[in-house]
Amino acid sequence: MDISLFLEEHQLPESYKDIAQKWFIPLAEDLAEHQNSASQPYFVGINGCQGSGKSTLCDFLVYYLSQHKGLKVVSLSMDDFYLDQSSRNALAVKVHPLLVTRGVPGTHDTELTLKTYKQLGQYGTASIPRFNKAIDNPFPVTEWPVVNTPVDIVLMEGWCWGVMPQEKDALALPVNALEKDEDSMGIWRSYVNRQLAEHYLPLYDYMQTWVMLKAPSFDQVYKWRTEQEHKLAARVGSDHPGIMTDEQIARFIQHYQRLTEHGLATLPEKCDYVFHLDAHRQISQVEQKREKVLE
């Protein structure tokens, strides 16, 4: 199957053809088969830590399912549902200063997420939210892409998408220096956990299939994240105001450590497809629910 145009558009190496053929086309075929017998739209949740390749996977699934299956597919990201700066600043004052940083549950507009889900299943059109990380605020609504609805498949990806709330006892001890020094009373992590339980679980209920790109460990996240930043710096210049140093990245990813590790430990058993990644982000095996492990 020729996916040359996809590789060119996304600046991917030729080796991606083999990856797609072996791992992702079978996944796409399965999703298409499930969608045939489902009420529209068919929701697919995709979990993967920072740098795991979930955005590229979603792009490929959109390409394959639309071009080769004739399906109408929309890809959504948790990143596009972040609250604006003003709202997060208000949370930082009212609840805890760490909430000024986007990323954790509680910093997303879950009402907008639910509204979008509903619109994607109705006849008409739906505007797809987009967030501008360069200015740390959503793009103007007038710049959001508009799709005709209902759609056939909705892909929803995120670094903690699908992760369940922790037991209260698990919140007692800090997992890193950020929690120890800046959340010594556990107010931030307790708030985040409560948001998961109250506002994210109802959104999870929409998902009919779960996919996970499973990193070897959280330690690997730092390496992947710094690689991404170095590539970005090479493209836009290391003096660009949005570029972080390795030290800044080390602090930044501590915001994500607790739920990333919790997800790595608990999500695989709940997912229908688990793609195990090695240190180089290559897939070593795939576990399919109720089916044999493919290697």
Number of helices: 10
- Strand segment tally: 10
CATH topology: Rossmann fold
Strand residues, percent: 15-25%
* Major sheet: arrangement of strands: 2-7-1-8-9-10
Q: Which CATH first-tier class would you pick?
A: Alpha Beta
What is Rg?
Answer: 19 Å
Backbone structural class: alpha/beta
**What characteristic shape results from the CA principal axes?**
globular
Major pleated sheet: 6 strands, mixed
Task: List the helices and strands in order.
Answer: HHEHEHHEEEEEHHEHHHEE
Mean pLDDT: 92
Corresponding CATH superfamily: P-loop containing nucleotide triphosphate hydrolases
What's the number of structural domains?
1
CATH A-level architecture: 3-Layer(aba) Sandwich
Unreliable segments of 5+ consecutive residues: 290-295
Multimer state:
single chain
User: What is the percent of helical residues?
Assistant: 40-55%
How widely separated are the two ends?
Answer: 21 Å
